[in-house]
Design a protein that fits this description.
By secondary structure, this protein is an alpha/beta fold. The chain contains 14 helices and 15 strands. The chain has helices at about 20-35, 60-65, 85-100, 120-135, 190-200, 215-230, 245-255, 260-280, 300-305, 320-330, 335, 345-350, 360-370, 370-380; strands at about 5-10, 40-45, 50-55, 70-80, 105-110, 140, 150-155, 160, 165, 180-185, 205-210, 235-245, 285, 310-315, 385-390. Helix 5 packs across helix 10, helix 7 runs antiparallel to helix 8 (about 260-280) and helix 7 runs antiparallel to helix 14 (about 370-380). The radius of gyration is 27 Å and the shape is elongated. It binds adenosine-5'-triphosphate and magnesium ion. Adenosine-5'-triphosphate binds near residues 183, 184, 189 and 286. Magnesium ion binds near residues 185, 187 and 343.
């Protein structure tokens, strides 16, 4: 049986007062964007809810799109019929027959928006519930702990019925909570951190540090693919490609081997902070997770972000690796992340990076790195900004 409409529940838990209208407008415009190919559908508000009338457009692919829209709490496929009692009863039976395959306790909820309708909601509940019970063998009524609730809403023109509820992504609509710069490596964690930022309503700018030709073209394509995958959830995404080669070589020659990772992280953070200011963003986001690798100890994290004046958000910091992997699979980035291309850091990391880097030593070393400021400035100036989604085959630089 094909649904005729979809009932959308938007941000039920997160919404307060005046923000509600703006929130709903933002979610609705994102929905209209992803459903643009389905030209026949129309949008309606009724009963304080939002409905999509399918007008014969297919439910399944539309539902798949809705599952990727932030701000939708849940949605239900809706079946409609005329407002005669008998057609409501028959529709109710057809719906229950289609969704029940074992003994099930149910109840009927009924609302009547059309006060002309000859039955009040209590009578309607009774007439529909009784009829369904007679015609569907596996059902029994349970008003207090039903496993299924069949909702019937009688409107002026038609009656709407639904029983199934599909979970949405929840979260906030795109951009409703400002903008952040996400440091996107080719790993598993940072794409998840990026997605969590999007879910929380942040617009994001992604930055990636590469060390071409020490890192390959494929390593960069992998990051572009990750960015492309994130655009399943957001209209477009700027990916800032930053050439980190000179800085890395410079640090390797002049730094101290066991502090190299920390020195690199400090330089990355400084560049990220510059991009935050350039793009009018409010924070840096990383995929750091406590204890995961040698540099992600508390002293390591403190050392990498010393002197950074913008907030640094670390959404996966307290997540267990398996939880991060599960989420990466669900959002479609895992299979891309595990492709075996080297990251700029893995190439340059020493055998035993410091887990407890000494800040005084780091500052002293950096004071002697007289070219570092200039190289950081150059890296910022020479960045290339790609607007995603795009095909990975399109080279982003004449040099590659
Ligand atoms: P990931 O899985 O995200 O790569 P990781 O556990 O491998 O994380 P690190 O490689 O130590 O951890 O990196 C920590 C964080 O620093 C990353 O999550 C990312 O936000 C940032 N980062 C590291 N390398 C890069 C890079 N080449 N470009 C952009 N950001 C980077
Ligand atoms: Mg990594």
């Amino acid at each position: 049986m094909k649904p005729d409409a979809i009932l959308l529940r938007l941000g039920e838990l997160t919404l307060k007062g005046r923000n509600r209208h703006r929130f709903e407008q933002q979610v609705l415009s994102q929905i209209q964007r992803v459903l643009k190919p389905y030209a026949a559908i129309t949008y309606k508000r009724a009963f304080g809810r939002m409905y999509i009338d399918l007008n014969d457009e297919p439910f399944e692919p539309i539902a798949a799109k809705l599952k990727n829209v932030f701000g939708i709490h849940s949605f239900s496929p809706v079946y409609t019929c005329t407002c005669e009692l008998q057609s409501i009863q028959e529709k109710a039976v057809a719906i229950m027959l289609a969704c029940i395959d074992r003994p099930t306790r149910f109840k009927v909820d009924a609302k009547r928006a059309d006060k002309e309708f000859p039955y009040d909601s209590l009578q309607l509940r009774y007439h529909v519930g009784g009829y369904v019970l007679q015609h569907v063998d596996l059902l029994s009524v349970d008003l207090h702990h039903p496993e299924r609730i069949l909702t019937v809403e009688v409107r002026e023109d038609r009656t709407y019925l639904f029983v199934e509820t599909i979970e949405g992504l929840r979260g906030f609509p795109a951009g409703s909570n400002g903008k952040a710069v996400v440091m996107l490596s080719g790993g598993i964690d940072s794409p998840v951190a990026a997605w969590m930022s999007l879910r929380q309503g942040l617009r994001i700018e992604a930055i990636h540090f590469h060390s071409y030709p020490y890192t390959s073209k494929q390593a960069q394509d992998k990051v572009i693919s990750l960015g492309n995958q994130l655009t399943e959830y957001v209209r477009e995404l700027n990916l800032h490609m930053i050439d980190f080669t000179e800085i890395q070589l410079y640090l390797k020659q002049n730094g101290q081997e066991n502090l190299l990772v920390t020195l690199m992280r400090r330089a990355m953070m400084r560049i990220a902070e510059r991009i935050v200011r350039e793009t009018n963003s409010g924070a840096i986001v990383t995929g750091e997770s406590l204890g995961q690798v040698a540099s992600q100890t508390l002293p390591g994290i403190t050392a990498s972000s010393e002197n950074i004046q913008v907030p640094i958000l670390r959404p996966v910091m307290m997540m267990d690796k398996q939880e991060i992997i599960d989420l990466a699979r669900r959002i479609g980035t895992f299979d891309i992340s595990i492709q075996p291309y080297e990251d700029c850091c893995t190439l340059f990391v020493p055998k035993s990076p410091a887990t407890n880097p000494n800040l005084k030593v780091l500052r002293a070393i950096e004071r002697q790195l007289i070219d570092l400021d200039r190289l950081i400035e150059k890296a910022v100036q020479t960045k290339e900004v790609l607007t995603l989604p795009r095909r990975v085959e399109e080279n982003f630089s004449e040099l590659l």
